[in-house]
Structure formats: structure tokens, C-alpha cells
Amino acid sequence: MAFVVFEGLDGAGKSTLIKGVEAHLQTLGQVVHLTREPGGTPLGEEIRQQLLRVQGDTPVPRAELLLYEAARAQHVERVIRPGLAQGKWILCDRFSQSTVAFQVGGRRLNRKIIDDLNRYATDGLQPDLVVLVDLPVDESLKRMSRREQEKGQGKDRFELEERAFHEGVRASYLAQAAEEPQRWLVLDGLQNPDQLLKKLLVEMEKRGWLAFSSK
């Protein structure tokens, strides 16, 4: 078992990749729990609605940060740690790395404060692997627009941010990956889903987590 986090801009293909990993692990008889942030618990899902809504009294940046951390503390205590203790694979769509990317890279908040809050909310828990599906901002915006047209799915508060915000988020992700190359795997989000899944499974095999043939 392992705790694997998936990060990236909206539209990068994280959800498809997570489902592919889940399916592969299940064929090996592994127990897998898929979860997400913000969310993952009943309380976390309620906070998620407050964070993403575009109408009403939306949170200011510092309140936004604290809401994320509150949801994360609940998530770690109620879901992630217990799941790992039970021998489950935990596959999480976004974790503390997103908070650094969005609140530092996007909102320009203080990195040290956010690092301290992340450590407190997680009680020191860190993922075994962070998978960054990296995508140029132009392509991310294009995919979000296409999704909106095809599914009639409106954009959330973060998707409505200006281009500079998304550029800052992407830059922060890449900087974090450079800080901890042993913990991060950066994949090219312009590749097709099968290619992304194959590269990730090969990486997991290298780490001794599973048997997978790359041939």
C-alpha cells in the first residue's frame, strides 16, 4: 500500500489517471480508496461547496486557506491515516501541494505560513508519491472551455480566475517538484491517458510497489 497524490491544473487528466491506477491495483487484489481535496469526508465536502461557489459571501484568501486546512485535518484524521493503517492504497486527487500551488503561486500568500499550517493540518503526514500531470495553461483553459460546452458544467471560482493566476499555480507546482524530485513524478499532460498510466505504473514498479511489465 502507499499514499499517492495527484496534482495538476484543471483539465490535466488527473481523474482519468486515478481511475486507471485504481483499476490496475484492483486486478492485483489490492484494496484501494479514492478520495479528494477539498472533500473526502462529510465535513470536507461541505467545506468544498463553500470554497468553490461563485455566488454569495465567498471567502477572502486567508479564510480560504484556513478552510482548506480545516478540511485537510478532518480528512487525514478520519480517512487517510485509518486507511493506510488498514493496508489500503490511498489515491488522493489533490493534497497539501495544491494549497502551496494555489495559495502561494496563485494568491501570493506567505509560503512559510502555509507550510506551517500544512504540517499542522496533516500532523506531519506526507504522500509517498506526488504525481504532477503538467499541462500548459493554454491547454488547460481550452479543455475547461470544452468541458463547459460539452457537459454544460459551469466553472467554479478557481476556474474563473485570470490567466496570471493559473500561470502562477503551474509555476509553483513545477518549483515544488524541483524541490523534492525523489517524491514527485512529473508527467506530460499532453500525452494520451494510456501513455500517462503506463509511465506511472512503471514508476510504481521501480519503487517496488507492484509488478508491471512495460513491454
Can you tell me about this structure?
- The mean pLDDT is 94.
- 55% of the residues lie in helices and 12% in strands.
- The protein has a single domain (3-206), classed as 3-Layer(aba) Sandwich (Rossmann fold).
- The protein has helices spanning 14-27, 42-52, 61-85, 96-106, 111-122, 137-151, 163-179, 193-206; strands at 3-7, 32-36, 89-93, 129-134, 184-188.
- The protein has 215 residues and is of the alpha/beta class.
- A five-stranded parallel sheet has the order 2-3-1-4-5, with helices on both faces.
- It contains eight helices and five strands.
- Helix 1 (14-27) crosses helix 8, helix 2 (42-52) runs antiparallel to helix 3 (61-85) and helix 4 (96-106) packs antiparallel against helix 5.
Layout of secondary structure:
Blueprint: E1 3-7, H1 14-27, E2 32-36, H2 42-52, H3 61-85, E3 89-93, H4 96-106, H5 111-122, E4 129-134, H6 137-151, H7 163-179, E5 184-188, H8 193-206
Parallel strand pairs: 1-3, 1-4, 2-3, 4-5
Short summary:
55% of the residues lie in helices and 12% in strands. It contains 8 helices and 5 strands.
Stretches with pLDDT under 50, minimum 5 residues? none
How many helix segments? 8
Q: Summarize the main sheet.
A: 5 strands, parallel
Order of helices and strands: EHEHHEHHEHHEH
Percent range for helical residues?
55-70%
Instruction: State which percent range the strand residues make up.
Output: 5-15%
CATH H level, superfamily name: P-loop containing nucleotide triphosphate hydrolases
